[in-house]
Write a structure and sequence with these properties.
The structure holds 2 protein chains of 2 kinds. Chain A is of the alpha/beta class. Helices cover about 35% and strands about 30% of the residues of chain A. Chain A contains 7 helices and 10 strands. Chain B is of the alpha+beta class. Chain B has 2 domains: about 200 residues, no CATH class; about 180 residues, no CATH class. In chain B, the strands form 3 sheets. Chain B has a 6-stranded mixed barrel with strand order 3-4-9-6-8-7. The radius of gyration of chain B is 31 Å and the shape is elongated. The chains are: A alpha/beta, B alpha+beta. At the A-B interface, helix 2 and helix 3 of A face helix 1, helix 12 and helix 16 of B.
């Protein structure tokens, strides 16, 4: 299986006061294409930091991180922006939709960065909204949507460009049980249909139940790496 | 992408309406204050020019040396011929011969005995046949009662003297003075009307007489102590005045003849030159200070507006937009808003100034007995600088604010930026 993420002996430190705080220690990890994986652990265990490094939003202090075959430490800001725009989709806990734009425009935004022609863009946006079941809300603004709908828009925005990797940071944290299951089912379907790799950071049992692979983190170390059987 | 970003700008009031209001108001204030100060300065310059100094003044070299004493015995001669020549050489410039003199005003009773007596400041000018001079001197506005002189034996006197000496219109008064040759001269005149200029120096004891009368009164045939010169449209320009002065003096002034004509500008007058320098400097400092204050407000507004958007920038970065692209887009946005706000602010500032240019504020109440030569009306004045002065803080401060806020994009980790949206 082709590797999407390959991490060797990775350490991440943050400055804290006069010293440093080590958020991640000795991380060794490989995630293959099409996996539905999650980093699981309590708050402060380092799962979001790890997710940000994989998403090239942050950089490691030591070690080697390869994302889709690219050494992220060697990337310039512009190159890592290019990698994100072409190959990585993001889903955030607070949806992070752009409030002044409609559902359609929020989903269209990643395609504008890729300079995709308008007719093709329209086709892709409508398809993405169809996947998440929001074709009737294309003209709505985020404030007119429920939390579940906002997160579905965020999913559509993440997958509209058909990225190889989607990173989702606590995607169900602000949702009720019913919406959480709906969202997760959508992502499972997309994972199967598009072969997109999904990596979550979560401590929500509902999400954990859907994961095919569960990587547990405590105090910045990987303590368990379990693959769901069947 | 441009269309997409424009939609965001137009829909987000906090990015358009509020910055536009802030910039427009700031720019409006600067433009208006500039025009207002400019109007005050012009009012003072115009009044002083029309009553006392002219934009330029031609006198004899000897007169110029002791000009503060206004020594009419050192007056210009052959004035009619000189005026003809000047009008040919400098078309568009107005030349108005005037003579200042002093003396005693004697008011007789019904028996011809002195009832009252007092000193006066006499000004001889073209009162009978020069409507332009009447206008230049703002005589119609200054008239309190009576009419302008129609004959050379009619005079105008200040309303203060008129009331103090309990005169009536058409009363005869005697002027006691000395001729340019130093002999005593006494002539009778009829009071045609009274004037009030709102300037203490003149209102205390001015007597206005036609130039034709001084041939007899001061023995000044075809002579005048000063020729006032006014630039076209009555607009004083130091540069133009200096140019004409240089050309005039090169042609007419003879260093070996102390009675040859010599031209000086308004700025050559020690008091006025100092006043103009002081006022100009004060206006500059005042407007500069105001501009700095407005710039700080606009800078801060641009800064806060963009700091508020760090979360949005974080999301855009996460989606794959480069830091440089976001930085450039917020700077371009601030240029757009800055220019638009500055245009609106400038138009508003100009509109208010234009209104006050044609509907001046009456300040005669405050100017009573003022020793400053300033008009009774305070008007704003629009000039070339007022058209762009607001753009300096309006555009630059907004851009600087955005650029400073934009530095945060580079300084912060991308992950940190979108976390700020969640706060």
């Amino acid at each position: 299986m082709e590797n999407i993420v390959q991490i060797k002996n990775m350490i991440k430190r943050y400055p804290a006061g006069s010293g440093e705080f080590t958020a991640l220690k000795d991380i060794n990890l490989t995630i293959g294409k099409g996996e539905f994986t999650g980093f699981v652990g309590p708050s402060g265990s380092g799962k979001t930091t790890l997710l940000n490094i994989i998403g090239t939003l942050d950089r490691q202090s030591e070690g080697d991180v390869q994302v889709m075959g690219t050494d992220v430490l060697k990337l310039t800001h512009k190159q890592s922006a290019r990698l994100r725009s072409e190959k990585i989709g993001f889903i955030f806990q607070s949806y992070n939709l752009l409030p002044v734009y409609t559902v359609y425009e929020n989903v269209e935004f990643p395609l504008l960065l890729l300079n995709i022609p308008e007719s093709k863009r329209k086709e892709m946006v409508l398809k993405a909204l169809e996947w998440v079941g929001l074709t009737d809300k294309i003209k709505s603004k985020p404030h007119q949507l429920s939390g579940g709908e906002c997160q579905r828009v965020a999913i559509a925005r993440a997958i509209v460009k058909r990225p190889l990797l989607v990173v989702a940071d606590e995607p169900t944290a602000n949702l009720d049980a019913e919406n959480s299951h709906h969202i997760l089912k959508t992502m499972v379907e997309l994972n199967r249909e598009l072969k997109t790799t999904f990596i979550f950071s979560t401590h929500d049992q509902k999400v954990i139940n859907y994961l095919e692979r569960k990587i547990s983190l405590i105090d910045g170390r990987i303590t368990k790496d379990e693959i769901k059987e069947g | 992408m441009f269309k997409f970003l424009m939609k965001g700008i137009l829909r987000d009031k906090s990015r358009t309406l509020y910055p536009l209001i802030t910039i427009s108001m700031g720019v409006m204030l600067i433009v208006f204050m500039w025009c207002w100060a400019n109007g005050a300065m012009s009012g003072m310059v115009d009044k002083t020019a029309s009553l006392d100094l002219g934009h330029m003044k031609i006198v004899t070299r000897a007169y110029e040396e002791i000009i503060d004493q206004k020594p009419y015995d050192l007056c210009l001669t052959d004035v009619d011929e000189l005026l003809v020549e000047l009008k040919q050489k400098y078309p568009g410039i107005k030349f108005k011969p005037r003579t200042n003199f002093g003396g005693l005003l004697d008011v007789p009773d019904e028996n011809g005995q002195t009832k009252a007596q007092g000193d006066f400041i006499g000004i001889a000018m073209n009162l009978l046949n020069d409507p332009d001079e009447i206008e230049t001197f703002s005589l119609k506005d200054a008239m309190v009662m009576g009419h302008l002189p129609k004959k050379s034996d009619e005079i105008l006197i200040s309303n203060v003297i008129f009331e103090k000496f309990e005169l009536k219109l058409n009363d005869t008064v005697s002027i006691i003075t000395s001729t340019m040759y130093g002999s005593m001269s006494i002539r009778n005149y009829k009071v045609a009307g009274t004037v009030r200029f709102g300037v203490k120096a003149l209102d205390r004891g001015a007597v206005l007489i036609d130039n034709s009368a001084i041939a007899d009164l001061l023995d000044m045939e075809n002579a005048s102590s000063e020729i006032f010169c006014f630039l076209p449209e009555m607009e004083y320009s130091r540069r133009d005045a200096e140019k004409i002065k240089t050309s005039f003096n090169a042609e007419f002034t003879d260093v070996d003849n102390e009675f040859s004509p010599y031209m000086r500008t308004m700025n050559d007058d020690a008091t006025m030159g100092y006043m103009m320098k002081m006022t100009n400097t004060s206006i500059m400092f005042m407007n500069f200070g105001l501009m700095i204050m407005v710039a700080i407000v606009l800078w801060n507004s641009g800064l806060l507006n963009n700091i508020r958007r760090y979360g949005e920038m974080g999301v855009r970065l996460a989606m794959g937009e480069s830091k440089g692209h976001i930085y450039r887009s917020i700077v371009k946005e601030s240029i757009l808003i800055g220019i638009l706000g500055s245009v609106i602010g400038t138009l508003l500032g100009l509109a208010i100034s234009l209104y006050l240019q044609y509907h001046p504020v009456d300040i005669s109440h405050y100017m009573n007995n003022s020793s400053i030569m300033m008009g009774n009306e305070y008007a704003a004045k629009i000039d070339g600088i007022s058209l762009f002065i607001g753009f300096i803080p309006g555009v630059l401060a907004s851009i600087l604010g955005s650029m400073l806020a934009g530095r945060g994009i580079y300084k912060r980790q991308t992950a940190q930026l979108f976390k700020e949206m969640e706060k």
